Amino acid sequence: MTLAISTAFPQVVPPVVHNYPHLLVHYGELALKGRNRHRFIQRLIEELRAKCRPLGTCRIRMLQNRIWCAFADAVSWDTLSAIARNTFGIANAHGMWQTLPTLAAIEAQAMACARADNFDSFAVRCRRVEKQGALTSQEVCIRVGRAIELATGARVNLDAPAWTLWVTLVGQDAFVGCNREEGPGGFPVGISGRVACLLSGGIDSPVAAWRMMRRGCRVDFIHFHSAPFTSAASQEKVAELVRLLARWQGIGRLAMVPFGRIQEEIATNAPSAYRIVLYRRLMLRIAESLARAAGCEALVTGESMGQVASQTLSNLAAIDAVATCPVLRPLIGKDKQEIVDEAKRIGTYAVSIEPHSDCCQYLEPRNPATHSSADELSVIEQEMNLAALVAQGIETAAWQTIG
């Protein structure tokens, strides 16, 4: 059902067309949620409300299959496009001006937009949300396109235009603008619960965390470091990575776990070939306890099948055997270049490649085992006081909030 739109805010054409009083948000996958759709959309509205609040008075309402954000004062497109890019659940968004759904009113607003830009080719894209309106999309495109063509001398190019005018017709209102931003899609953060990601400081785990956020999870982070045997570089890196990822989910919680002494105990009592897998099993035990205490329902890692010796199928199965909660690996079928490309796209790559000493590199064996079983590792672990090592990791973990 279409809701009536308030016209309390003045509809005055601004001197700079790339400042907009309206952001028209289109959601994609959320529309397929059936009876649960309202819950998903409400969560997206909450996210938008939080991100729009610093920009001044903003009214947010449902508008057919879109979300309408109306600002008391026009907001720069750079600011609005950043909201669209960094809010999960958004398929795309447009900066818009609101006008009457008549050809004359739409044409007038379109000309104001066109005169503020320079372009040699253009297209008019019109979407009619409700089919019972007096105007058709084709009528708008022909009439407005012809007016722009005569006023600017630019040619129509529907395949690869240098400039595009967007028109949306909804009930008794029309929205006109010339800026569009693709959103990240997915689900709004928090709708799918809370998980804890083992964040190493490398390339893979930040991408894994981002992918879980995109599926609607709020992510906490756990970092194992080998201080005092290694520098604090990895701790500084993961804090910066959490800060970068906060663009999508807001404030993040990060637990720093000193792991160097625990690694020494493993290295003293275990065959060198099995060290990495034993490190990972102990990390999982500690991380699960921390995660459950923080209200998380699953663990997340950046592991990819076969990327390193500990990530073979048998080793992953042996590692997972110690966990009682789900261990999610969103990158399991990705190759390294795919992960690198995604890290660059989301903005974590440059920080991830800064040099640091990973905890798994401390006391790393020269020839790690590519095959192990839970049974044989359990026999090796009998030589250690596992309960004491897990308790040590939990008790020395230090939580901080970043964002």
Structure at a glance:
The chain is of the alpha/beta class. It is 38% helix and 23% strand.
Strand order of the largest sheet: 2-3-1-4-8-7-5-6
The chain-level mean pLDDT equals: 90
Span between termini: 38 Å
Helix run count: 13
- Order of helices and strands, N to C? EHEEHEHEHEEEEHEHEHHEHEHHHHE
How many discrete structural domains? 2
Biggest sheet details:
8 strands, mixed
What percentage of amino acids are in beta strands? 15-25%
Q: Return residue spans where pLDDT drops below 50 for at least 5 consecutive residues.
A: 1-16
At the third CATH level, what is the topology name of the largest domain? Answer: Rossmann fold
The CATH architecture classification of the largest domain is 3-Layer(aba) Sandwich
CATH superfamily of the largest domain: HUPs
Helical residues, percent: 25-40%
Radius of gyration: 26 Å
Morphology: elongated
| Helix-strand category | alpha/beta
CATH class of the largest domain: Alpha Beta
Number of strands: 14
